[in-house]
Amino acid sequence: MSSFTKPLIVKPLDNRKWELVEEFDYYTDVFKERLIIKVPKGFVTDFASTPRVLWSVFPPWGRYGKAAVLHDYLYQTAMFDRKTCDLIFKEAMDVLGVGKIKRELMYLAVRLFGKKHYNKTFKERKCL
What we know:
Number of helices: 4
Structural class: alpha+beta
Number of domains: 1
Distance between the termini: 35 Å
Order of helices and strands: EEEEEEHHHH
Shape: globular
Strand order of the largest sheet: 1-4-5
Radius of gyration: 14 Å
């Protein structure tokens, strides 16, 4: 069963950036075998990358906060292909009890608008 194993503990860096004070882990069942993803201490996130105009409906943080941090980490590391990263995000929101409509809308948003962010990370990592 998918699950988060530790609390999310962050400290603010500025208006939109937060740094993880401690590692947190997520067990995913998206694959045939259960896999653990470790988001390391020191990782920097902006939680959900929601345009400011939508903050009243989808603020950057909320019940889905841990899932958003996990998704940021998956995109920034290009750990998996983009579709898999997005499926893990959707699964993690379900684990956190995010309502079905909000979960589906946020998943749809990353599928529609996440490509440029993922591709940027992928290109940067490919050059290393």
